[in-house]
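Input record (one chain):
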Amino acid sequence: MRWLAQTSEDTEAFGAWLASTRPAGEALAVVYLIGELGAGKTTLARGYLRACGVAGPVRSPTYSLLEIYDTPGVSILHADLFRVQNAAELDGIGLREWARPAFLWLVEWPERGAGHLPQPDLSVGLSAGTAGHEINVTAGTALGVRWLNALSNPALASLVEKPPPGT
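The corresponding structure, as predicted from the sequence alone:
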């Protein structure tokens, strides 16, 4: 699926839409956020976290590598692997400790953790262009397929505060 976000607010709104359409259940969910510097990965994560009730500052955890947010119903791990030089570094920060039910992972720069991360349910590719940021979403698991179906169903727009960008 493809969307166009013309502003950072549109990118945040898409993150909120992504949060609002997550299939119910306790299973671990993993979302890879893929794109170059400035493509909108952290902005999308901020929208997701805000929609889940996070009120404080949401910044990319570039230096701490990860941040955990406890929200009603799910704990969210936001990881930024930009500074990871070798995927084996992830073993030392206890990342696998949070690969359990009732957790959702938002992972920026997942390619730097190849072989040490769970398979993504959704991969969200962001790229900056002259007309805005293009957002492409693909599913990698059965959970991801259900999620993508919910994202792409315009009938669901009436069930959330704001319809997805581009509709």
